UniProtKB/TrEMBL annotation:
One Pfam family of this chain: Bac_transf
Family annotation (InterPro entries): Bact_transf
Keywords, sorted A to Z: Membrane, Transmembrane, Transmembrane helix
Assigned protein family: Belongs to the bacterial sugar transferase family.
Positions of the Bacterial sugar transferase domain: 33-232
Spans traversing the lipid bilayer: 39-60
Protein name: Bacterial sugar transferase domain-containing protein
Species for this entry: Candidatus Roizmanbacteria bacterium RIFCSPLOWO2_01_FULL_37_16
A molecular function GO annotation: phosphotransferase activity, for other substituted phosphate groups
């Protein structure tokens, strides 16, 4: 049983409760999860695509640089490729500045807890507050199917290497699932509706593991619906 707070566990239990016989890895490998991704993303595209264009123009006007940020990573253990496309919310040299913030902290969890990241632009703060920078991922999920609407949040390969160095149990188990190809990254998930950036890295990984063991069609529907409420409240946004 995951070792997070009783209140967090209770909330996760309510959300993940389902009488479906198609759960966990069986559900992920079935056509039901992909069908849900396709239907939901396709239905949002008429509104999402114009919004992506508008916000992209605002970012371009802000500093004159390319308004999108794309990451493509390959799982070295399975060969699976994941592509993440976002509206750029940071300065163009943000990746080069990352080492200044990671420094010699010696802990992935500490290094990634920046509450006031100076690399985020003024417009970027507004986009992130309501997760508008992530709208292009709806197109990406529909288009290339390398990720899902619901699942563990995306980690870059360098971050995963850092996570694997942590000694706490959830880190090791999460990495093992990743190595076995049991993780399909998602746009939203339990962590996004139960705290977002307010959660510790450990709690986030525990929630990922809890979801992976119990994911189902009904649970995914609940999470998609609750995500809208969480975004509008902006609780836990960075």
């Amino acid at each position: 049983m995951p070792e997070f707070s009783p209140s967090l566990l209770k909330s996760a239990e309510v959300i993940m409760k389902s009488n479906s016989s198609l759960k966990g890895l069986k559900y992920m490998q079935s056509g039901a999860k992909r069908w849900l991704d396709t239907v939901v993303t396709f239905s949002t595209l008429p509104a999402v695509l114009p919004a992506i264009g508008l916000f992209g123009l605002l970012v371009l006007r802000q500093d004159g640089h390319y308004p999108f940020f794309k990451i493509t990573e390959i799982n070295p253990y399975t060969g699976k490729q994941t592509t993440i496309l976002k509206i750029r919310s940071m300065t163009t040299n943000a990746p080069l500045e990352e080492e200044d913030f990671i420094g010699d902290s010696g802990s992935y969890a500490q290094a990634k807890r920046l509450k006031h990241d100076p690399r985020v632009t003024p417009l970027g703060h507004k986009l992130r507050r309501y997760s508008l920078d992530e709208l292009p991922q709806l197109w990406q999920i529909f288009h290339d199917r390398s990720s899902s609407l619901v699942g563990p949040r995306y980690f870059r390969s360098g971050d995963i290497n850092s996570i694997s160095l942590e000694k706490d149990q959830p880190y090791a188990e999460w990495v093992e699932r990743y190595k076995n190809g049991q993780i399909l990254f998602g746009l939203t998930g339990l962590a996004q509706i139960l705290g977002r950036a307010l959660l510790s890295i450990s709690d986030r990984l525990w929630l990922d593991l809890y979801y992976l063991d119990r994911m189902s069609f009904i649970a995914d529907l609940k999470i998609v619906g609750l995500t809208t409420t969480a975004i509008l409240s902006a609780k836990g946004s960075k």
